């Protein structure tokens, strides 16, 4: 939870430190890989004579994935570099954990993709000619940018880091 909190604070507009957020994402992924691969601990602790002394119930793996990445996803997917890093990291984690834990990682990746998009309206002569959705993943924003003409005017409105999107689009339009 603390690493996730550090990442969220790093993503806040007042701090704006995506590098720290990405380092936290990397450390969180290492923790998840370790937990997924160590197996489930004994839930019952007994004394030497066999008497049950403690019954433990740890959180399910999906809950741990949520604690690690839900808030980072919420506050970070508006920044293309964070969304892309989250997806890359989740993909790497999926290859390093047992198959029975992969659904939680796939679900988180789908949530990142669903959160990391923006609506775009193409105007001509003041009228909307076309509407589309663009994933706020760096390479997808750049693919979209390549469809623009140099004389196009673009207005960026995003729930996340519109400045990052603007920096990616600027070389393609006036």
Structure, explained:
It is a single chain. The protein has helices at residues 2-11, 18-37, 61-76, 80-96, 102-115, 138-145, 162-169; strands at residues 44-46, 52-55, 117-124, 127-135. With 174 residues, the protein is of the alpha+beta class. The strands form 2 sheets. It has a two-stranded antiparallel ribbon with strand order 1-2. A two-stranded antiparallel sheet has the order 3-4. Helix 1 runs antiparallel to helix 2 and helix 2 (18-37) packs antiparallel against helix 3 (61-76). It is elongated and about 85 Å long. The mean pLDDT is 86.
Specify the biggest β-sheet: 2 strands, antiparallel
Count of separate DSSP helical elements: 7
Average predicted confidence as pLDDT = 86
Order of the strands making up the biggest sheet: 1-2
Helix/strand order, N-terminal first: HHEEHHHEEHH
Ends distance:
43 Å
Estimated share of beta-strand residues = 5-15%
Summary keywords:
two-stranded antiparallel sheet; about 170 residues; single chain; two-stranded antiparallel ribbon; 7 helices; alpha+beta; about 55% helix
Topology:
Elements: H1 2-11, H2 18-37, E1 44-46, E2 52-55, H3 61-76, H4 80-96, H5 102-115, E3 117-124, E4 127-135, H6 138-145, H7 162-169
Antiparallel strand pairs: 1-2, 3-4
Helix pairs in contact: 1-2, 1-3, 2-3, 2-4, 3-5, 4-5
Summarize this structure briefly:
This protein is α+β, with helices and mostly antiparallel strands.
